[in-house]
Amino acid sequence: MRADNYLPQWTEPASAEEGGRDPLGLARVHDRITEWLVPGITTQTHRARYYSYYLWAVGDVNAIDAPGRRHEFEEGMRRREAGFVLACLADHDGDGPAALVGVRQGERRWRSQFQSGSFRTDFQPLPSMLAGGYGQYYGGSLYNLGLVHTPVEANGVDRLTPLGQTIAAAFSVAVADTEYIKEGMQGLPELGLATAQDYGKHACLCRLRSATKADLGPLTDLFFGMGEHNRPEAVPRRETLLLCLDAVSAANKHKIEVAKGAFDALVVSCCAFYGHLLRGKRSVRYGAPKPLTTCAQRWRWLELHRYTSYALERLLSALLTRLNDAQKRMSLDEFVRDLDWGKMSQTAREFAPGLRGADLRGWVGAVLGSGGAISEQGSLQFDRSHGLSADLSEDGLGSQLAESDDLNEQVALSVLLLLTLYCRFNHCRGRDPRWMENAQRGDGELWFEVVARRIDDHLSKKANVAQFLVDLLDRDVLDGHERMRFERGKLDASWLERDGAMLTWQRDYRPPWRSSKMENCGTILEDLGLLHVDEDGLVEVAPRGAALRSRLLAEMGEG
Fold first, then answer.
1. If DSSP codes are grouped into helix, strand and coil, which group holds residue 81?
2. So what's the pLDDT on residue 431?
3. Residue that finishes a domain, picked among 152, 175, 207
4. Residue 496 lies in domain
5. Which residues of 263-289 are buried (b: 16+ CB within 10 A; e: fewer)?
6. Looking at the structure, do residues 318 and 462 belong to the same domain, yes or no?
7. Is the pTM of this model over 0.70?
């Protein structure tokens, strides 16, 4: 049984705010949590060796080109990256390695110039960014990790910090014996095929473990916050990477196949959120090692926010669909009144059989399975009993919600998803210190606690689901949409127009499932030789990874 069979992969993954797809501002809390838990790793920083390569390039540009202005520095980075792209292509016989920045431009030169045995290096790997992948993706991470800085007197030229110099020097050792370096070819307009192949054997992204390995140790220390990189802000990243290793180790132990690309599902959804793995139809309990329990809980908060975001954005999507179909202005009251409440109740009863009527308390009681009011004990029991294999789970609701093309089903499932989260997490609110810690990252933004308070309020008023839905759409969904519209200054790029109580459709919206950065963590662990991926794309903990996991957990007090 593959672990990714039980993952929330029912909608397209997307990095937060990609393409402006964040109409309610929900990506803000998402970004705050992920940046806190994996500082220095973004949704676009896929490969470990880029962290040492770009540091070397920054140092090499400063040492050899001595740029006095930003554009001169960027031009130096461009020339080096063009050579690097060709070297990586040469090491893979023209088929670029995964996540190679500038691969399209490089392959174009490779195909057109291969027969000549020499390649021009005067191209720009990223046409829209002179500084290439450094400027577009990795530079910000290197800056945040304290590896590069831009002194005031440098006129916009980035420089290495002492920590950055150590890692850059390690990459320099790895490529020192290549003709490309020995002959000083970094600034030349052409690169011969043999030279590119020789350089690629030592410099390629995939050669981190198989060449001189000079930068393998420093990069491992960097990502795990060891040695001179042992700083407080590195601790959450170290714990997250260890949680990845531990989750894969647990899956390997129970003979559950883990596919490359399934880290988001395995670590965040299965292990952190539900605390279970599934082997066939049998649920296998997963408990993070004691030093990692807080880390796992923090990732659980991210999953809570992602489910909340998906439900709220699906409500927005349903509203937009109805406005578009109606081809006329419509109020929220009209939208909710026109819903088929019989069909909505029928849909909800598929997951909560005890549901009767349209009373909000009745829906919450049906979700709990007790028919009663929410309580701390009832919430705790619900959380313990509703795992991955339960008939009522957030993943099951999300799966059906993603597949549904019926507006009434979409609204019913979205509301039920929010109520399920409410029942699962009610015992944490205002009590768990880690909940309060997470609340700081949601302060002033739309996140689960805002919705939970909305549910609290309507339960106290003995309201029906229709009244709750109108209020939720009005005060959270539409107000969130208006706030983001004005904050971004994009008044002409909204999804709908609001004129008093009346709404007019502008464009449709397809909610994404936002990336957790776990896939990048998995790739980085593979690059570092801590995970092994076989020819079938299945992942297991490598001996080096098992040893590092055991050592660090022991140092943290485990066992």
1. helix
2. 81
3. 207
4. 19-26+297-514
5. bbbbbbbbbbbbbbbbeeeebbebebb
6. yes
7. yes
